[in-house]
């Protein structure tokens, strides 16, 4: 058969892949399935480059530790990337480019809010635009592939990795994940400003038992199908080109060896045509889990399940040959994996533009439009939880403000734990942001870590901004906490400021929902500032002084106490005691959260009214209502639509989010708002393969959050236009 020239960009990707595959040796094929970290690059350069020259390194992960940003790892060096790439392209036999990967989770030089914060904006289009900026900055440095978005549904804030998630709701997680994929991959994956993105961690990792990272996950098929898989479906629909299999054991099967989920649900049933990479060492873990007799069987199980590339390559590099010789895998399986990897490399344009322009790279880092967008997203990600007697917004110029507390001057913390390349010095601290806005003459502060110094400062001010919360070291991978409580000493610090009698705002920073008795009891106002990236301080100042109006709404329930966990809004109906009003769930605390999913205040007061069924036609139902802004300021309200079925063939949540919209509304005005819903979307999975939507009456619910809703009953005949008994 004539061998087509795979370097000819005029050929189809399929032709180029098959042409190249037909020329590859077994070693070169297995090499494409290996992603290696490079520890001590300089000292081991020659050894490493000779592996690249032999075609044994299909990918390189720009990380030298598996600690997910928790330890300062190696930086990105465009010259080093070019050096490696030149050997691959110009000195190896077939010239296949290496694909360079890095965890660009929520920022490069410009660092966005952590994903859990971003999701509180409910603003998918802004997230897409912000990630476009990140993709430009990262790809210009030579990074081709990133391991994001993470779309693990989370219900347990003890788990450190909630920072990377988009919260507890499948629909919102999916919408945000799709937004990130579109931002990273753009309209043209081959364009130099795009990054190959990665849907992770497939699947169920967020359900790690006891909130303990890497622990087992017990998820029923029904819950897997209705809660944990839908965000991954959304990512496939958005065109994500890679998936990452997780660390977790799922009901007896480690997901990295799950043929049903990877080759079955993902590749066969949902037509995923990209490739799957393992998580760091998750193939070797199969031997550790004792479901693989040895490392060779572990490699064979993973490839057989559909894992195409091994992150930290020892699993495939060292054992796939043996597995093939032993008949544990077939050359067809290897060829399929290699074809998937090569397809993504061709589609990413690596054969056409394998090198990076180091000079040009610096030009786009932290471009003003990037930092402006990061600030806008930070403003929309922060959530106003309390504002007693409308203390906020503070009045500029007439107010002497004391900015104190453990997070008044911090910078690194606002970058969150999963930040490899952001620089602490680039972060605008809360103090700096307020000072820049209202002038040094109006701001008091104390650099001291001593509460009595803060108190002294408070006494001299008209109002206090007390900045508390966790460090970035308390959340992120392998950083779980057993008790939801502020770092020691902070409850007392809040009490001490309260005892001054001064009006005070608490700005809470951190990577997870975190209740505080002292804040609930004493603070006049409470802003959840999360870890909002390089523009944190500027965004806090704009919100506190009314240059921006808070609009953020929680995407993860705030528990009252650790004992309530798992706690989330879309719970199934309660059994027996539900009708006894004094049944509280616990003797010591009721079942209600501190703040529910979807909750967040504005400086404007809104009213929802006149909910009505507008139309049912062409398989869609339209629900309309009136939103009124009762305040003399323009504002944005995140309107939410939930639904509840009267009948289902299996238990379903009492309410499920099915629509949301950010609605801008003028001062003292009303406007009609409509949601259009696919009636088919009211269904659910009975099993992983069976999606059903039995005819049923449905109650739609609109409102500002999952607890404060106006109902609209719809009979099944209205919805289905046929009578059902
Ligand atoms: C880590 C994480 C994963 C990350 C990968 C590479 O252990 O689980 O999310 O992308 O390894 O750093």
Beta fraction: 15-25%
Structure summary, number of beta strands: 25
- Contiguous low-pLDDT stretches (5 residues minimum) are none
Q: Give the names of the bound compounds.
A: alpha-D-glucopyranose
Please compute the radius of gyration using only Cα atoms.
Answer: 26 Å
Give the helix tally: 22
Q: Span between N and C termini?
A: 65 Å
Q: Could you give a short account of the major beta sheet?
A: 6 strands, mixed
Helix- and strand-based class? alpha/beta
Mean pLDDT: 95
Give helix % range: 25-40%
Any idea what the shape is?
Answer: globular
Biggest β-sheet: strands ordered side by side in the sheet: 11-16-15-14-12-13
Enzyme class: hydrolase
Domain Fibronectin type III-like: 637-706
Catalytic activity: Hydrolysis of terminal, non-reducing beta-D-glucosyl residues with release of beta-D-glucose
EC number: 3.2.1.21
Structure in words:
With 725 residues, this protein is an alpha/beta fold. Helix content is 30%, strand content 19%. The chain contains 22 helices and 25 strands. The protein has a six-stranded mixed beta sheet with strand order 11-16-15-14-12-13, with helices on both faces. A five-stranded parallel beta sheet has the order 4-3-2-1-10. The longest helix has 17 residues, at 124-140. The radius of gyration is 26 Å and the shape is globular. It starts with 12 loop residues before the first helix and ends in a 5-residue tail after the last helix. The mean pLDDT is 95. Alpha-D-glucopyranose binds at residues 63, 66, 68, 103, 147, 200, 279-280, 477.
């Amino acid at each position: 058969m004539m061998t087509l020239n795979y370097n000819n960009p005029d050929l189809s990707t399929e032709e180029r892949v098959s042409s190249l595959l037909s020329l590859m040796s077994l070693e070169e094929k297995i090499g494409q399935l290996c992603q290696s970290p490079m520890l001590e690059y300089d000292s081991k350069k020659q050894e490493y480059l000779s592996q690249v020259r032999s075609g044994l390194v299909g990918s390189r992960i720009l990380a030298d530790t598996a600690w997910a940003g928790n330890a300062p790892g190696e930086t990105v060096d465009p010259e080093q990337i070019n050096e490696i790439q030149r050997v691959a392209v110009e000195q190896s036999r077939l010239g296949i480019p290496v694909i360079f990967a890095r965890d660009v989770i929520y920022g490069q030089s410009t660092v966005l809010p952590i994903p859990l914060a971003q999701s509180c904006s409910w603003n998918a289009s802004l997230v897409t635009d912000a990630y476009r900026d990140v993709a430009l900055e990262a790809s210009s440095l030579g990074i081709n592939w990133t391991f994001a978005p993470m779309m693990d549904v989370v219900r347990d804030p003890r788990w450190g990795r909630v920072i990377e998630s988009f919260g507890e709701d499948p629909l919102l997680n999916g919408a945000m994940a799709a937004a990130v994929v579109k931002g990273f991959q753009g309209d043209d994956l081959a364009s130099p400003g795009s990054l190959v993105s990665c849907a992770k961690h497939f699947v169920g990792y967020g359900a790690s038992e006891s909130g303990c990272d890497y622990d087992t996950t017990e998820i029923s098929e029904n819950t897997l199908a209705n809660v944990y898989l839908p965000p991954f479906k959304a990512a496939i629909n958005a065109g994500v080109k890679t998936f990452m299999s997780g660390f977790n054991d799922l009901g007896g099967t480690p997901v990295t060896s799950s043929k049903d989920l990877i080759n079955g649900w993902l590749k066969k049933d949902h037509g995923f045509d990209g490739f799957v990479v393992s998580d760091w060492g998750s193939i070797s873990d199969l031997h550790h889990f004792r479901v693989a007799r040895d490392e060779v069987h572990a490699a064979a199980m993973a490839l057989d399940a559909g894992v195409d590339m091994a992150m930290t390559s020892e699993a495939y590099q060292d054992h796939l040959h043996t597995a093939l010789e032993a008949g544990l895998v077939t050359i067809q399986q290897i060829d399929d994996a290699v074809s998937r990897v090569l397809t993504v490399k061709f589609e990413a344009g690596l054969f056409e533009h394998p090198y990076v322009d180091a000079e040009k790279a610096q030009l786009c880092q932290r471009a003003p439009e990037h930092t402006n967008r990061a600030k806008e997203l930070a403003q929309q990600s922060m959530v106003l939880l309390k504002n007693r007697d409308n203390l906020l917004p503070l009045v500029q110029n007439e107010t002497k403000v004391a900015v104190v507390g453990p997070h008044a001057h911090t910078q690194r913390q606002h970058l969150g734990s999963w930040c490899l390349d952001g620089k602490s010095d680039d972060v605008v601290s809360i103090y700096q942001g307020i000072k820049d806005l209202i002038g040094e003459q109006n701001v008091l502060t104390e650099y001291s870590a001593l509460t009595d110094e803060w108190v002294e400062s408070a006494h001299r001010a008209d109002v206090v901004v007390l900045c508390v919360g966790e460090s970035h070291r308390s959340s992120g991978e392998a950083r779980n906490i057993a008790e939801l409580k502020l770092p020691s000493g902070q409850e007392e610090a809040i009490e001490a400021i309260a005892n001054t009698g001064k009006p005070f705002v608490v700005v809470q920073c951190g990577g997870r929902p975190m209740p505080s008795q002292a804040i609930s009891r004493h603070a006049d106002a409470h802003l959840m500032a999360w870890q909002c990236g390089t523009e944190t301080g500027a965004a806090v100042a704009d919100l506190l002084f009314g240059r921006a109006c808070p609009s953020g709404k929680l995407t993860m329930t705030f528990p009252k106490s650790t004992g309530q966990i798992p706690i989330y809004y879309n719970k199934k109906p309660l059994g027996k005691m539900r009708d006894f009003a004094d049944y509280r769930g616990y003797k010591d605390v009721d079942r209600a959260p501190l703040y529910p999913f979807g909750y967040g205040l504005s400086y404007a007061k809104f009213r929802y009214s006149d909910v009505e069924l507008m139309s049912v036609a062409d398989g869609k139902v339209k629900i309309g209502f009136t939103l009124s802004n009762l305040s003399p300021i323009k504002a944005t309200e995140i309107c939410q639509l939930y639904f509840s079925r009267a009948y289902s063939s299996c238990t379903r949540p009492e309410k499920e989010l099915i629509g949301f919209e950010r609605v801008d509304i003028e001062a003292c005005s009303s406007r009609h708002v409509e949601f259009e819903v696919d009636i088919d979307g009211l269904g659910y999975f009975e099993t992983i393969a069976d999606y059903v939507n039995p005819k049923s009456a449905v109650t739609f619910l609109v409102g500002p959050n999952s607890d404060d809703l106006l109902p609209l009953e719809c009979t099944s005949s209205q919805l289905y236009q046929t009578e059902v008994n």
